Amino acid sequence: MAAKTSASFADPFIRIAVSLFEDLSRQTIALLGILLASLLIVPWLVNDYLLTVLIVVLYFAFTGQAWNIMMGFAGQLSLGHAIYVGLGAYIAAVLFARFGIAPWIGFLAVIPVAAACGATIGFLAFRFRVAGVYFAILTIAFAEFARIGFDHLDYVNASAGLFLPVAQYARNDLWHLRGNPTMFYYVILAAAAFAFVVCRALLKSRIGYFWLAIREDEQAARAAGIDTFRYKMAAVMISAVVTSFAGVFYAFFYNNLFPEQVFNISRSIEIILGPIIGGIGTLFGPILGAFVLTGLAELLNAAMAAIGFDLPGAKQVFYGICLLLVVVALPEGVWPWLARRIGVSGRRQ
Amino acid sequence: MTALLSLERVSKRFRGLLAVDGVSFAVSAGDLFAIIGPNGAGKTTLFNMIAGAIVPDQGSINFAGEPIGGLPADAVCRRGIARTFQIVRPFPALTVEDNVIIGALLHIRDVGKARARAGDILRSLDLFEQRNRIAATLTLPDRKRLEVARALATEPRLLLLDEVMAGLRPTESDRMVAILRSLNRDNGLTIVLIEHVMRAVMALASNVLVLDHGIAIAQGKPEAIVRDSAVVQSYLGAEPV
């Protein structure tokens, strides 16, 4: 009797889990399994330096996935996603540093702020028909307002920066996000996996179809009865909230926040590089892009150290040339090309 | 008799050009109504006003007894008017099936049920075999049928077709005529179409409205329209007296 009750209680969850994976091909499931398994055992195999590199990779896989909701799914180009990272970072950090509030509770306070910020930008743009590159400029403007604003906000130490108390902890404290890189690694791995599953569920749902319609042809989408304002607003707000969690992680991983760094436009550009290189609008693209980009940067470091070449800025030049070659050779991104190579349907995966 | 769609002295001016000048007409439920006229007569402008893409300057548009003039395009579609575009615009990077699923999702919230519905519509328009192809790779006749399929998926009471025959070979346009006739007769769908292909108009339409320079110059049964001197003049020019 008890077993039957628990089975019926779990039933909807099982159905959701099955529906998430039922239409995946065997190759895709195998690929996902191998990827997840190797990521789970990695902390036992690598040193702390490499683990930190992997944390950065997963961080960009997560933010890339979040940005992709707006651009890849709904076709709205944001070049100011640093604003959501920064808001998440500052709010969670201040609540912890001043009131001792745990970051997970802090994130609950971040959610409405990030959603409201996304809604404000979205409302101004979509209500007054600011679209395309002008929309992108509006998102940059908001991120810059935030950077300058926080730079003068004494409550968060303005440009002097906000520091989280760093203490030596005998054990990992997941609730307060204080601990060693291995703990942070698993936190960001769980977040990236969660973002992947959420994005897949969104893409397969009614709202996902409507987003794709808006991305493809907004006027035709309206002619098909889609309230494009409403669904674009939803895309911006969901993307903002997901991105803001990356800010919470950022604050507690690095323990210091400077407006000049967190809200800087180069942060926004870093976020979008992964999905662009990996494949805009795909689910594996942001993950693959993050690996390719960070891997490339680390390889260049190692290669230049090995040959003893040490000219300032040379690394950035090589990095730029490599990105250029990837974009020219694979304009759709690395994932659609790779997917064809390994015989998986790359479309919408 | 109450009309499903009625326009009362509808006008639209673009700068100096009076594109549509006080046009009135009514389409009753179950009708297959054609709007013809030379290039630049204002046909597409008239369509865009009915479909909510353009706001009329003057006049009123009523659908199923309610004013719809000036409503946005998505609201008009939700009330039961679906349209196709003169220059086809399917969602290019999506599959044929996904294009139609998007239309079906307007009234069917469940994606699986919307896919089933899309399958039925694709079968009736001879597109089912191509359901997994990317829309941009289809031939023009197929893309035209895909637009009709997507519009039908929104479960309209009135279908607005903007030159769905243009660019089709005679056999292809005969196939389209058969499809539209079946939709009209078997499903009771009211259709208003803009058409240049007179062969199709004569075969299909129960009523014809002729526009010239934004003015409705004639209206009636197709057989009467082709003998109307004003219509002949607008198409062929006035005979020297």
Describe this structure in words.
The complex is a heterodimer of chains A (349) and B (241). Chain A has 349 residues and is an all-alpha fold. Chain A has a domain at 46-265. Chain A has helices spanning 2-21, 26-45, 48-73, 82-99, 103-127, 133-151, 181-204, 206-216, 218-223, 228-254, 259-262, 265-278, 285-306, 314-329, 334-341; strands at 162-163, 256-257. Chain A has a two-stranded antiparallel sheet with strand order 1-2. Chain A is globular, with a radius of gyration of 21 Å. Chain B contains nine helices and ten strands. Chain B has helices at 43-51, 73-78, 96-104, 111-124, 140-153, 170-186, 198-204, 222-225, 229-236; strands at 5-14, 17-27, 32-36, 58-63, 66-67, 81-83, 158-162, 190-194, 207-212, 215-220. A six-stranded mixed sheet of chain B has the order 6-7-8-3-9-10, with helices on both faces. In chain B, strand 4 and strand 5 form a beta hairpin. The mean pLDDT of chain B is 90. The A-B interface holds A 204-206, 209-210, 212-213, 216-217, 219-228 and B 51, 53, 72-74, 77-78, 82-83, 85, 89-94, 98, 101-103, 105-106, 109, 111, 114, 150-151, 154.
Rg of chain B, please?
18 Å
Q: How many distinct folded domains of chain B?
A: 2
- What is the percentage of strand-forming residues of chain B? 15-25%
Shape of chain A: globular
Note the gap between the termini of chain A: 41 Å
Instruction: Describe the main β-sheet of chain B briefly.
Output: 6 strands, mixed
CATH superfamily of the largest domain in chain B: P-loop containing nucleotide triphosphate hydrolases
